[in-house]
Design a protein that fits this description.
alpha+beta, Immunoglobulin-like, Neutral Protease, domain 2, 5 domains, eight-stranded mixed beta sheet, five-stranded mixed beta sheet, 33 strands, binds diaminopropanoic acid, binds zinc ion
Length: 875
């Protein structure tokens, strides 16, 4: 495959001012007629050939300014259409193509999901519908006409506002939609089918009434109300926090059951994976409710950061994604709990982005080149991209950040912009030199920051020696130092933050200092007693911090730090230190007991009713096995890590059995279910207590969990109890799993949870179970949600199973990738990325994993998606 490079960017020779698309819907032979009004851009030489992108298209006809073109005038292949000698001035090109929605198993372009016609165009799906300049910097005004048999497709939707509809002969009807906002092709959408909807209205800040609709399969309307509620709150929040109003008369969301991604922000017509729409208390968990709220917000916020201002090219993907993730994170923080949200986001970042950044798939937030852009919808572009925006906000303060955003919206509305454009707005609005911020976009790898400290009584100074070092990553061996904002506090002996008279050696504002060199020595004056430094508060930069804080310091921070993030982080660091040492002991055939002081400190947090229950639940959660892998980094023995973690959990559970039982008892609530943050937190803490009771082997714990499962009145409680039974491999797990399957038979989303849970049971023979479940009626290899639920959960959520010492887990996943790749390359390539940390494994597993990767790589006809991943992985 060909490599696309950022440095090669140049605008197209021609602009497409308007697009008239006409779709005559048919399951196997949909007729697409596209009429483009084109004009050469300034500077294009007269007669320069025009080449439009295509992908697997069936060409039917072409006309120029309403007259048929002779075959001498153009070349049409499945992958491109070239008009050899375009006329001067404005001209109209009409092209007819034919496409087979039913045969479209890749779910890119026009496809069918349970009978509904639906599109997915980002990033390069529009070229599977018609020939086009299918890139984000070609902005056009679209008018779309949809036509089909009224009994099969009573609902016909596209972007913008509806302008016309009518009946035709032989039971057909049509609808015409017009989107006045110029947009790139990746934001085009069309949906047609037998859909029901719920509707509501929203009055914007300036008093316009917007019609809101959520479309679903008939019968599922009752499960859309939380999504609608989330949408209205998102619309209000964007007005209040960023001054952004919605701009069309109607905003529509459609939920479909076959979808590669979570959701898609098409202008005025978002298409969602139904997992992020449908919710009711019996089938959705608190996590599902929170996920729906944040994905609804994310896609809605794209209306300004993505749609009104889009990306110049796909290298700038983080311009819309990082920024929009930041915005949805802020929304959740404002709606729920800021510390809890921050901790969850950092856990996600470390679980997904850090390993990506440390392995063969590492790439800059703004890559310099790609072979397949679909493989760059990554944790790095999204989550690290959001962290960079957060660092800007941290450095510039609330007002400065808002001023920069205001300028960005004002200056670039209606444009396709770059990261440089974005940074320039903040630099200008706040008169700050932000040139080195670009390094965060251009350099891959997670910097390690070290901090060594000393206090000098005589001079009342506290000295912090800081260094930063970013490891080499594929294609980048040398790294320049980056600007790293470190939010800090010096915690005095009484537990309060100390006053600092003056700071030398670093640019510092209030409680943030900027590490900008490889090495800096920072001196804090007026420090009359030895403080414990609390660094990187709120995780102010996406770095790995190695500080010289010892166990006593960490216990002190866990008890006293005024920053809730660092209090939590102190507990995590203590647990991680233990897990690493315990893993080593296990590999030596030894054991290592947990520190009673640490367990006691956990108990103090768990029972501190001054803290939110959700926060207490997070504090009690041990680092995941994958977190420990990451920290160990080389020669990882997954079985030893798993054993270390299970042992520690058991020790805590048994030491704190009485506390956990009290917690559990006081947290039960008989009121009606509501997914609000308070009751969500209560349920999370209760589930955590129950899990520790079981892990600790407490008398009666299994019965308690079984009763919790049987008497649950919502999915959150039911699933938590089932998970505890299953993950701890208790005898009651199997009958409970059977009961669950009977209860939710036929409910695909609820059955996904059942598939996932079984796939994650941490024992070697889980692989056999996963193979059997592939024959269960609840599973289908054609549906991405089912594949992610069963196979994805096994590959990424079951270290014990996937990393079986005999390599059977690797072999199984490689087989699935090979089977899936011809049908849905995107989903196959995603699955393949489960191997991304293979080089860190101990030698035996590393060899087995390499063999499987090589077996995949040797396949002829591998998709560009999978071949790109596998070659980078082996490269
Ligand atoms: N729909 C995906 C997202 O919102 C890709 N744009 O992140
Ligand atoms: Zn997005």
């Amino acid at each position: 495959g060909q490599t696309i490079r950022l440095d090669d960017y140049r605008p197209t020779d021609y602009a497409i001012e308007t697009v008239r698309l006409d779709l005559k819907l048919d399951p196997k032979r949909t007729q697409v007629t596209s009429t483009l009004s084109l004009a050469a851009r300034d500077g294009t030489r007269g007669g320069t050939p025009l080449t439009l992108d295509g992908d697997a298209l069936t060409f039917v006809f072409a006309e120029l300014d309403g007259k048929p073109l002779s075959p001498d005038d153009y070349v049409a292949t499945p992958d491109a259409f070239t008009l050899k000698r375009p006329p001067e001035g404005l001209f109209e090109l009409t092209i007819g193509t034919e496409t087979n929605p039913e045969g479209n198993s890749a779910l890119m372009g026009l496809f069918r999901s349970s009978g509904t016609y639906c599109t997915q165009c980002e990033p390069e799906g529009f070229r599977r519908i018609t020939y086009f300049l299918d890139r984000p910097d070609v902005l056009s005004v679209y008018t779309t006409r949809l036509e089909g048999p009224k009994d099969q497709v009573p609902v016909l939707l596209s972007n913008g506002n509806p302008i016309e509809e009518g009946e035709l002969a032989d039971g057909h009807h049509y609808a015409v939609w017009h989107d006045p906002y110029p947009k790139p092709s990746y934001l085009f959408a069309a949906v047609a089918g037998n859909l029901a909807h719920i509707s509501d209205t929203f009055v914007t800040a300036s008093g316009r009434t917007v019609d809101l609709r959520i479309y679903v399969e008939p019968g599922k309307e009752d499960r859309c109300h939380w999504a609608m509620d989330s949408l209205k709150r998102s619309m209000r929040w964007d007005e209040v926090r960023f001054g952004r109003e919605y701009d069309l008369d109607i905003f529509m969301i459609v939920a479909v059951s076959d979808f590669n991604m979570g959701a898609m922000e098409n202008k005025g017509l978002n298409v969602f994976n139904d997992k992020y729409i449908l919710a009711d208390p019996t089938t959705a968990t608190d996590t599902d409710y929170a996920g729906i709220e944040s994905v609804i917000a994310h896609e809605y916020f794209h209306n300004w950061t993505g749609d009104r201002i889009t990306c110049r090219d796909w290298f700038q993907l983080c311009l819309k994604e990082g920024l929009t993730v930041f915005r949805d994170q802020e929304f959740t923080s404002d709606e729920r709990s800021r510390p809890v949200k921050r901790i969850s986001d950092v856990r996600t970042l470390k679980a997904h982005q850090f390993p990506e950044d440390a392995g063969p798939l590492a790439h800059p937030v703004r890559p310099q080149s790609y072979r397949e852009i679909n493989n760059f919808y990554t944790a790095t572009v999204y989550e690290k991209g959001a962290e960079i925006v957060r660092m800007l906000a941290t450095r510039l303060g609330e007002d400065g950040f808002r001023a920069g955003m205001d300028l960005y919206f004002e200056r670039h509305d209606g444009e396709a912009a770059t990261i440089e454009d974005f940074l320039a707005c903040f630099a200008e609005a706040t008169d700050t030199d932000l040139d080195t911020m670009l390094l965060w976009y251009n350099q891959a790898g997670t910097p390690t920051v070290t901090a060594t400290s000393s206090w000098d009584a005589g001079s009342s100074t506290f000295t912090l020696k800081l260094t930063q070092n970013t490891p080499s990553t594929p294609g980048q061996s040398e790294k320049a130092p980056m600007p790293i904002p470190i939010r800090f506090g010096l915690v005095g002996p009484n537990g309060d933050d100390m006053e600092v008279e003056r700071i030398e050696g670093a640019e510092a504002a209030a409680d943030v200092l900027l590490l900008s060199e490889h090495e800096q020595t920072v001196v804090f004056h007026g420090i009359g007693a030895r403080p414990v430094p609390s660094l990187l508060r709120g995780f102010s930069a996406p770095v790995r911090l190695e500080a010289d804080t010892d166990t006593a310091d960490l216990l002190f921070l866990l008890a006293h730090d005024s920053d809730p993030f660092n209090r939590w982080n102190a507990a995590q660091t203590l647990a991680m230190d233990h897990l690493k040492r315990s893993t080593e002991a296990i590999r030596r055939g030894d054991t290592l007991a947990a520190d009673p002081e640490f367990i006691k400190a956990l108990e103090t947090v768990a029972t501190d009713t001054g803290l939110e229950p959700a926060y207490r639940a997070l504090a009690l959660q041990l680092p995941a096995e994958s977190d420990v892998f990451r920290e160990i980094a080389t020669d990882v023995d997954p079985a030893a890590v798993s054993k270390a973690r299970t042992t520690l959990k058991g020790e805590i559970g048994s030491a704190l059995a009485g506390t956990m039982r009290d917690l559990y008892d006081t947290l039960q609530d008989d009121g009606p279910y509501h997914p609000d943050p308070e009751s969500t937190g209560r349920r999370a803490l209760s589930a955590c207590a129950l899990d520790y009771l079981v892990a600790g082997g407490t008398d009666g714990a299994e019965e308690l969990a079984k009763t919790h499962f049987d008497t649950a009145r919502n999915m959150t409680d039911r699933l938590a109890a089932l998970s505890t039974l299953a993950m701890n491999r208790l005898p009651s797990a199997e009958p409970a799993l059977e009961d669950y399957a009977k209860m939710f038979e036929g409910d695909a989303l609820a059955m996904d949870k059942w598939l996932s849970m079984q796939a994650m049971i941490p024992q070697p023979d889980t692989l056999d179970r996963v193979r059997e479940l592939m024959d269960h009626p609840a599973f289908s290899i054609a549906n991405p949600n089912r594949v992610r639920a069963l196979i994805g959960a096994f590959a990424t959520g079951n270290a014990t199973g996937f990393h079986r010492a005999d390599g059977a887990g690797y072999h199984f996943i490689a087989n699935i990738v090979i089977e899936l790749d011809p049908k849905n390359p995107q989903v196959a390539a995603r699955l393949l990325a489960a191997f991304r940390s293979w080089r860190s494994l101990e030698e035996g597993r590393r060899t087995l994993a390499r063999q499987e990767l090589e077996r995949v790589a040797e396949r002829a006809d591998l998709s560009r998606d999978s071949s790109d991943i596998v070659s980078r992985m082996l490269g």
